[in-house]
Each structure stands twice: as structure tokens, then as C-alpha cells.
Design goal:
Layout (H helix, E strand, L loop, with lengths): L1 E3 L2 E3 L15 H5 L5 H12 L5 H13 L2 H29 L1 H24 L4 H9 L7 H12 L4 H32 L4 H18 L24 H26 L4 H20 L7 H21 L3 H11 L3 H15 L5 H30 L1 H4 L1 H15 L4 H8 L5 H7 L3
Antiparallel strand pairs: 1-2
Protein name: MFS transporter
GO molecular function: transmembrane transporter activity
Pfam families: MFS_1 (PF07690)
Length: about 425
């Protein structure tokens, strides 16, 4: 054991007899004061994000007898969210998480309740679109949680990497459990149950999250507001990568539903999310991080496995196993990509920068869903798995375009940590 500058440094040898091993990265992460409290509230608020879409489709299709109407209403809500979310995130950065997230959540919950009332009482179809569009003020709870970690761990890049990996694993877990919980509530209780329970969980979780003021990052204020993240060199190319990556997820979901064509589709899709969740937790323990292009190359290769399984064997079991393995490339890619977004985003605009990335991802999911559905109709579900592979290859190709802006920005902001420098090299 040695000391350097007054700091205790452990030599790389086995612990002495009778002395416990140092805590792991996740245990150290949640020893940060206030971390467990805001994480619990955020997870409660984040779970409904995977419930609302499924709940709306089941509720509207069940009451109105039209999946086309249900799909159009949810698509309208997605489009409204893509427009409104960056503005909500900008207000969060400017005025603080608690001051903006709570009223924004109340408005979104009122929209969900209005949708339930309109569907239940047989209101005209146009009211469903208006009600669901009102939910677009829903704040990006995952982005706010990442912003808190970035604030609390600003001098510890290794811990930030672990935090980002945990947040990605939490995203996968919520989007794996959310649809299952929504379907169970709507089918087991009544069609509106999924939306009502999700709205209650969202509001309760945001209130608990916002109450943890000690961990909240400071508001930037109007006077100190820097330029838009979109004007930062390298941001637009990164958003294009997120757009292509979103197409991987959107097409994979639709093609898998078409291939399974039955109630087992949800369980098969959950395997992909489970693989990503496990990989995200493992990636958070890694001492070294990978380049974004390396992660995307791995994703391109692994996304070919479902295509080979479906076209070569036609076996559902083989496709399910391939999806589990393919999902393991998702979380490392998203963690590395979100890390790049955080470095490119000007100080005081972190929520807005990450929300722009999520918006690009949602746009890619919508485009991938359309492309996947079109391919399934024309060429069959097995060949539809070529769309995720193509989208992943496109994302990889975008990182290979000549660009040195990311490295220039990193140098200008004087990022000196070896962990950060490694991921700040051109993707």
C-alpha cells in the first residue's frame, strides 16, 4: 500500500488475510449520499415509459375495435413528444429539475387521464389525438438521472462510466417489464388499468425524485445560458448515429412480432432486452471502455445472428437464442454513445443534449418500424431481419466518415482523464 499526494493507493495484490476486499463499482456508486433515494424515485417514474404505448393500444383497440386508430393515436403522441421534449429539457436545465419536472409531469398525467375518459365515454376520435398529444410534456426521467450522476461524479470518470452503464441497464429493464405489466393489467383487470396505474406510478416517482434536492444539479439560469447543443461541432453527426441505431430497435421489434406471430412475441423480445441489461451491468464493471465504432461493429455482427437463425433454420428457439446474444451489443453501444453526447453538450444544457439524442433515437425507431413492417409484408419475416443488420451497418458507416470534431471539442474542454480520452477519439 502506498500514498501519492496524500491519497491512499492500493497495490495490485491479493488482500491480506482477514481484510475484506474493496467494494465493487456498483456498491461504491450507491454509497454516494442521496444516490439510492433519487434512483428509487426515478426507477418508479421510468417504468411507466414502457407501459403507456402498449396500454393505449390495448385500451383504444378494445373499446373502439380499431388497431389502425390505436396506432395512429400513439404515433401522434410520439411525434408530439419529439417536438416538445427538447423544449421541456431546456427548461429543466434553465430552471432546475424540481421546478419544471413536477408541473410537466402533472400536465402529462392529465393528458393520460383525459385519454382514458375520452375512450371510456365514447368521445369523438379527434379527442383521442388531442389528449394523447398532451402527454408530450412528460420529462425525460432517464436523462435527469444521468444529469445527476454527471454532477455528482464530475471528478470521477470511471464512476461516471459505471453510472451510465447502470442507467442503460435500468432502461432495458423498464422497457422489458413495462409492456408485460401493462398487458397483464389491461387483460386481468380492465382496459384502462394499465394507463391509470402507469400515470400514478409516474407522478409518484417524479415527486419522490424531485424531492431529493441535495443531489439536483444547479440550474444554469437565463443569463448564463450557453448556445444550443445542436451548434456544437460533432453533435449533428452523433444524432445521425442515434437515428440509425434507433432503426435497429424499431425494425427488430416489428420483424420479431411478425416472425413469432403469436402471444410468445413479448417473451421473445424480452430476451433481447435481458441480454442488453446483463451486458450493460457487465460493461459498467469494465476498467476500459470501447470506442463507439467498435461497439457498432459488434452490434452489426451480432444483429446478423437472428437473420441467420430465421432464414437458415426457421426455428423459433434458434431465433430466441440469437436475439438474447444480439441484445448484448445494445447496452455498450448506448452507454458509449450517451457518453459522447454528454461530452459534446455545453455545460448547463445536459438534459437538452441527452433529450435530443433520445428524440433522434425515437425517430429512428419509428422509421425502423415502418421499414421492418414493409419488408415483412413484401419478403417475409425471416428476410425482415436484414433491416436491423442494415441499420447497424449504416450507424457504423456514419462513425467511419472523416471527422475530427469530437477530438477537437474534447481538447478544447481539457478532458485529461485516460478513460475519457480513449472514448473521445474519433468514433
Amino acid at each position: 500500500m502506498t500514498t501519492s499526494g496524500g491519497t491512499l493507493v492500493l497495490a495490485s495484490r491479493s488482500p491480506e488475510p482477514g481484510r475484506s476486499r474493496p467494494p465493487g463499482p456498483y456498491r461504491r456508486l450507491f454509497s454516494v449520499p442521496g444516490a439510492r433515494a433519487f434512483t428509487a424515485g426515478n426507477l418508479l417514474a421510468r417504468l411507466p415509459m414502457g407501459m403507456f404505448g402498449v396500454s393505449a393500444v390495448i385500451m383504444i383497440a378494445g373499446e373502439r375495435g380499431s388497431y389502425a386508430l390505436a396506432g395512429a393515436v400513439t404515433a401522434t403522441g410520439l411525434a408530439a413528444t419529439a417536438l416538445v421534449a427538447p423544449w421541456t429539457a431546456r427548461l429543466v436545465d434553465r430552471h432546475g429539475q424540481a421546478r419544471v419536472a413536477v408541473p410537466a409531469t402533472v400536465l402529462a398525467v392529465l393528458g393520460e387521464l383525459a385519454l382514458v375518459l375520452c375512450v371510456h365515454h365514447g368521445a369523438p376520435d379527434w379527442t383521442l389525438f388531442a389528449a394523447y398529444a398532451a402527454t408530450a410534456t412528460m420529462p425525460n426521467t432517464g436523462g435527469m438521472s444521468r444529469a445527476r450522476w454527471a454532477h455528482l461524479l464530475k471528478d470521477d470518470p470511471a464512476a461516471r462510466h459505471t453510472a451510465n452503464s447502470f442507467e442503460q441497464a435500468a432502461d432495458e429493464l423498464c422497457f422489458m417489464l413495462g409492456p408485460v405489466l401493462a398487458a397483464w393489467l389491461c387483460a386481468g383487470l380492465f382496459p384502462e388499468a394499465g394507463t391509470l396505474v402507469g400515470a400514478g406510478m409516474l407522478l409518484t416517482g417524479v415527486l419522490l425524485f424531485a424531492a431529493q434536492r441535495s443531489t439536483e444539479p444547479p440550474a444554469s439560469g437565463r443569463a448564463a445560458r450557453p448556445g444550443s447543443p445542436l451548434r456544437t461541432p460533432g453533435m449533428v453527426p452523433m444524432l445521425a448515429v442515434f437515428l440509425a441505431t434507433g432503426a435497429v430497435f424499431g425494425s427488430m421489434e416489428v420483424v420479431t412480432i411478425g416472425f413469432v406471430d403469436g402471444p410468445a412475441a413479448g417473451a421473445v423480445l424480452a430476451l433481447q432486452a435481458a441480454g442488453s441489461c446483463l451486458a450493460g451491468l457487465a460493461y459498467g464493471r469494465a476498467r476500459r471502455t470501447a470506442r463507439l465504432r467498435t461497439c457498432l461493429a459488434a452490434m452489426t455482427v451480432l444483429m446478423a445472428l437472428p437473420l441467420l437463425a430465421a432464414a437458415g433454420t426457421g426455428s423459433l428457439l434458434a431465433v430466441a437464442g440469437a436475439l438474447l446474444i444480439a441484445g448484448m451489443a445494445t447496452a455498450p453501444t448506448m452507454v458509449t454513445g450517451m457518453g459522447a453526447i454528454q461530452r459534446l453538450t455545453p455545460e448547463g444544457r445536459l438534459n437538452e443534449g441527452m433529450t435530443l439524442a433520445v428524440t433522434a433515437l425515437l425517430g429512428g425507431i419509428a422509421a425502423g418500424s415502418a421499414a421492418g413492417g414493409w419488408t415483412v409484408e413484401l419478403a417475409g419475416a425471416a428476410h425482415g431481419y436484414a433491416i436491423p443488420v442494415t441499420a447497424a451497418a449504416l450507424a457504423l458507416a456514419l462513425t467511419l466518415l472523416p471527422a475530427g470534431t469530437t477530438k477537437t471539442v474534447a481538447r478544447r474542454r481539457q478532458i485529461s482523464s485516460p478513460t475519457i480520452d480513449k472514448t473521445c477519439r474519433p468514433a
